[in-house]
Write a structure and sequence with these properties.
The chain contains 2 helices and 7 strands. By secondary structure, it is an alpha+beta fold. The protein has a domain of about 90 residues: Roll (SH3 type barrels). The strands form 2 sheets. A 4-stranded antiparallel sheet has the order 2-1-6-7. A 3-stranded antiparallel sheet has the order 3-4-5, covered by helices on one side. The radius of gyration is 15 Å and the shape is globular. It holds the Pfam family SspB.
Amino acid sequence: MQQTTVSTKPYLIRAIHEWCSDQGFTPYLVVAVRQKMQVPQEFVKNGEIVLNISYNATRNLTIGNDYINFSARFNGVSRDINIPVGAVVSIFSRENGEGMGFEYEGTPEAHLDDAPASTSDSEEPPPRPSGRPQLRIVK
């Protein structure tokens, strides 16, 4: 029998999303943006994007084991979002900041078509931000 280790990360993301929704909180996702990830690049700041993934803010939200997919409106324009689960660095409640942080996990299959063959840094973790942490409670 072949034994495969499946990451707990997508399960934890789904659980915190469900907890936020049940409590009437707004779940936010912090994503480390790499290569040509399908997110609105104009909202990327310091290599990360913060996304509201509540059911009210998204359409057709799917939190799968490999990717998080949904459609959302940005400045009135509907955009399709496709995020590798490995790029999620945290999920938290906007109202009280409770949630969970994760290590950035390189997703080689997501970078194969995007990165030039000579690029060796596509799987390195993002640089650590200096100064104060980026997560903060938004009221």
